[in-house]
Amino acid sequence: MPSPLTPVITVFERSPDRGRGLARDMRVRWALEEVGQAYEVRLVSFSAMKEPAHRALHPFGQIPTYEEGTLALFESGAIVFHIAERHAGLLPDDANARARAITWMFAALNTVEPPILDLQTTRFLERDRTWYEERLPLVENRIRGRLGELADRLGNADWLDGAFSVGDLVMVTVLLRLRASGLLDEYPNLSAYVARGEARPAYKRAFAAQLAVFTGQPATS
After folding, report:
1. Which H or E run contains 113?
2. Coiled-coil ranges per the record (predicted)?
3. pTM score, two decimals?
């Protein structure tokens, strides 16, 4: 049993992404690994997510949730922010740099991710609609607009604002959703940026842990 202060996160019992690191618990796992915080996982089925016990933690019946003692949180961005505030390693010490890192985290979730999620909805749920062929290029071009702006800002830098921060962690997890679409390949500096995130030891540990849930095999470091 976990100690009362060991965080517990909920994750898909059978993830739709088949363990490819796209489920939103990935960014929470990665944040915990970056700061060196041990955690426990509780697997939740799709039906259990809609039951009262889980809705008491997440009113919208989704994952992940985060429990630490008497504290219960939902929404992956809020959870990652909480982890970054409680532990050293994801937020700069300088107040202005700290504010910029938080800004990039919100930019990832509020500006970059919405059109990417729209693309996923279009491709998987609207393919049989008569207007699909007309809508798809519009959605893809909205994404290209955001990626172009982000690529211009990143330039030749390794990270968005100096050292790696919570802003980069969230942004990388958002951009990873584009890998299968091929759109990310149109921006070499963004592809290299994502690859740097994936190369971090903490990311690799988090990915292995998430994949292990799908495969049923224990994660190895």
Report:
1. helix 113-125
2. none
3. 0.91
In terms of domains, do 106 and 183 share one? yes
Q: What is the pLDDT of residues 86-139, one digit of tens each?
A: 999 999 999 999 999 999 999 999 999 999 987 777 666 666 676 667 777 788
Residue 116 and residue 178 in one domain: yes
Q: What is the pLDDT of residues 131-170, one digit of tens each?
A: 667 777 788 889 999 999 999 999 999 999 999 999 999 9
- CATH code assigned at 172: 1.20.1050.10
Sign of CA dihedral 130, 133, 137, 143: positive
In a domain, 171, yes or no: yes
Order the strands of the 40-44 sheet from edge to edge.
40-44, 8-12, 65-68, 71-74
User: Does residue 79 form part of some domain?
Assistant: yes
Q: Which domain holds residue 131?
A: 95-200
65 forms beta bridges with 74
